[in-house]
């Protein structure tokens, strides 16, 4: 996975997201049995980024969106966005497009 700031990423379509008790939970709907048993709970910032990934977005675009909507400094935003997208891709929840 290239984590360059201008690479575009999008969430995978086969991932089901459900809001339960004010938390968003991601559930893979296809893949191996082990993948289907994994759940991912998103905090409010991760939920915001997940929604942004409905359409292809670069890391730089996600950082910009985060800075516009949350009280966070640019260095923290870049690190958090890069870490979140890397985690999504490693767990087959998002992909480069």
Number of helices: 4
Whole-Å distance between the termini? 11 Å
Low-confidence stretches: none
What is the average per-residue confidence, as pLDDT, rounded to a whole number?
Answer: 88
Model description:
The chain starts with 7 loop residues before the first strand and ends with a strand. The longest helix is centred in the last third of the chain and has 17 residues, at 74-90. It has a domain at 8-13 and 43-96. The mean pLDDT is 88. Helix 3 packs across helix 4. The strands form two sheets. Strands 5-1-6 form a three-stranded antiparallel β-sheet. It has a three-stranded antiparallel β-sheet with strand order 2-3-4. The chain is globular, with a radius of gyration of 13 Å. The protein contains four helices and six strands. It has 97 residues and is an alpha+beta fold. Strand 2 and strand 3 form a beta hairpin.
Set out the fold topology:
Layout: E1 8-11, E2 15-20, E3 23-28, H1 33-36, E4 40-42, H2 44-52, E5 57-58, H3 59-69, H4 74-90, E6 94-96
Helix pairs in contact: 3-4
Supply the key terms:
single chain, 97 residues, alpha+beta, 3-stranded antiparallel sheet, globular
Brief digest:
Helix content is 42%, strand content 25%.
